[in-house]
Amino acid sequence: MGTLSPVGGLRGLGLVLVTALALVAASCSVGDDGGPTTHIDGLGSSLREIRANARAEGDLQLVAWPGYVDSASTVPFTQQTGCTVNVTEAADSDEMLSLFRSGDHDGVSASGDVSGVLMSGGDVAPIDPELVPNYGVVQDGVKNRSFNSRDGQPYGMPIGRAANLLVFRTDTVPEETDSWNVIWDDARPFSRRLSIPDDAMFIADAANYLQATRPELGIDDPFELDERQFRAALRLLRAQAPYVGEYWTRSDPAQVRSFTSGESAVGTTRPERIPEMEAAGIPLKTVKPVEGATGWSDTWMVSSHADNPNCMYLWMDYSASPEVQARFAESQNQAPVNLVACQLMEDPAACTELHADDEEWWDDVDYWTTPSEDCGDPADEEPCKTLDEWKTAWAELRG
Predict the structure, then answer these.
(1) Per-residue confidence band for 381, with pLDDT thresholds at 50, 70 and 90
(2) For residues 7 and 98, what is the distance between their CA atoms, to the nearest angstrom?
(3) Domain count of the fold of the chain
(4) Are residues 377 and 327 in the same domain?
(5) pLDDT (0 to 100) of residue 35
(6) pTM here?
(7) Where is 267: in which H helix or E strand?
(8) How big is the chain by its Cα radius of gyration, in Å?
(9) 85 beta partners
(10) Residues 251 and 381 in one domain
(11) Which residues fall within 8 angstroms of residue 22, CB to CB, at 6 or more apart?
C-alpha cells in the first residue's frame, strides 16, 4: 500500500479550483456529437491491443479507500498483466479528490460525492463496456446510476455496495428498535451517547428521515434538496447535536472503541465496522430502519489523461472478477456486484446476509450522489443546494 500524502481539503482552494475545473473541462476530448468520448490517448482499441499495451506500460497508479486494494489481488494482477500496482490511500473525500486531481494517478475508487465532481469536470472518461467484459455480469441495480454514469454512458466499474445502518447496544436500547427516530426525535434518553459520522453527506441522512416523517416537505431524493428542504434538514441536525457523544471519521476506528467501552449506545455505522464490534463480544444489533437508509456503491474510474490507461482498463475488468469480488466483499462487508463471487466466499450465508441478490432490499437505499444545483435534472426550475453549500453548512454546524 502507498502512504497518504499531506494534501489539503477542498476548502481554501476557492477560485483556483473553479478555474482548474473549467480548464480541465475545456481540455477534455469530445465525440462527434459534442459529448464526452471514451477515447484516451494510448488506449488500445481491442482487448488484445490493450493487453499488449499494458505490458509496455508496466505501471498503474491508483487512489483508493483504505482496504480497497491488497496484495492478495495486486500480486496475481501484476503476474497476469505486467502492470505493477501502486496505491495511495485517501482518508476522506476531499483528500481523494485532491490526490486524483494532482494528475499523478490513472484511476480512483470514487465515492458518490466524488464521482459527480469528476464526471462534471472532465477528470474521468466514460468507459467502453466492450473493453471491460466483466461489466456485462455486474448487477443491473448498480448500473446506469447518476453516481456512475451520464446519459446512459457508464463512467466506470462498480466495486460493491452497502448501506449506512443503525447500530445500538441492546443492553441500552430496546432490541426491537427499528426506526431512525432513536437518533433524531427520541435521542434524549441517550444524551452524549450518539455516534454520528463527521461528514457533510450526513445531511442526506437527516433528509432521508424527513422524507419518511415529513412528507409535506416533498423530498424525493435526500441528495437533491431545495432551500426549504435543506433548512429543515439542518434544523434536525442542530437539534440532534447536543446529544452526540462522538463524530467519527471513516479512517478512524474510534467508533469500535466507543461502543465496546459503552461510551456510545446508538448511532450510524458502516458495514465494515460491524465485524470488529461483534468480535468485541458486546451486546449489539444493526438494522436498516423502516424509513430506509443512505448507502453507496463506489466506482473504479479511469483518468481522462491517464498515463497508463491500458493497465487501468485491465484493472477495472479484474476488479469485477469473482475472485476479487469475493475477497473485497469479505474484507469490506459489502455486497459484491458480481454474484458469482458468492460461490467463492468462505461463509455460504454471507451473500444472503449482505443482501447481494435481493434488489427489493435496496429499493429504499439512497446511494451517495453529488449534490448539484440542477437537482440532477437540468430542466428543474427550483435550484438545489450544491456540494460546496453542504460542506459549508456542515462546517458551521460542527464549528
Answers:
(1) confident
(2) 7
(3) 2
(4) no
(5) 65
(6) 0.90
(7) strand 266-269
(8) 21
(9) 60
(10) yes
(11) none
In a domain, 288, yes or no: yes
Asked whether residue 326 is domain-assigned, the answer is yes
- Whether the Cβ atoms of residue 385 and residue 371 lie closer than 8 Å to each other: yes
Q: Which residue segment(s) compose the domain that 277 sits in?
A: 162-295+372-398
Q: pLDDT digit string (tens) for 147-187?
A: 999 999 999 999 999 999 999 999 999 999 999 999 999 99
Same domain, 156 and 53: yes
> Could you give the CA distance from residue 375 to residue 363 in angstroms, rounded to a whole number?
20
Give the three-state DSSP class for 7: coil
Domain of 190, CATH number, reads 3.40.190.10
Shared-domain flag, residues 258 and 390: yes
Closest CA to 150 of 330, 376, 342, 340: 376
Residue 175: count of CB within 10 angstroms of its CB: 12
Whether residue 251 sits in one domain with residue 376: yes
In this structure, the answer to whether residues 220 and 248 fall within a common structural domain is yes
Cell numbers describing residue 280: 468485541
Predicted pLDDT at 301? 99
245 with 382, same domain?
Answer: yes
Instruction: Output 131-136 pairs: Cβ under 8 A, ≥24 positions apart.
Output: 131/44, 131/46, 131/47, 131/50, 131/313, 131/317, 132/157, 132/313, 132/316, 132/317, 132/320, 133/47, 133/317, 134/317, 134/318, 134/319, 134/320, 134/321, 134/338, 135/316, 135/317, 135/320
Q: If we measure between CA atoms, which residue out of 77, 68, 82 comes closest to residue 1?
A: 68
Position 34 confidence tier, pLDDT thresholds 50, 70, 90: low
Decide: 66 and 89 in contact? Cβ < 8 Å. yes
DSSP string spanning 324-338?
HHHHHHHHH--B-SS
Contacts (Cβ under 8 Å, ≥6 apart) of 122: 24, 25, 26, 27, 28, 36, 304
Burial of 335 (0-12, 13-18, 19+ CB in 10 A): buried
Collapsed DSSP state (helix, strand, coil) of residue 33: coil
- Distance, in Å, from the CA atom of 62 to the CA atom of 105, rounded to the nearest integer, reads 6
**Within this chain, do residues 53 and 86 fall inside the same structural domain, yes or no?**
yes
- Measure the CA–CA gap between 369 and 126, rounded to whole angstroms: 17
Are 332 and 160 a contacting pair, CB within 8 Å?
yes
Strands 194-197 and 266-269: parallel
SS3 state of residue 63? strand
> 363 in a domain, yes or no?
no
**DSSP alpha helix (H) spans, 149-220:** 203-213
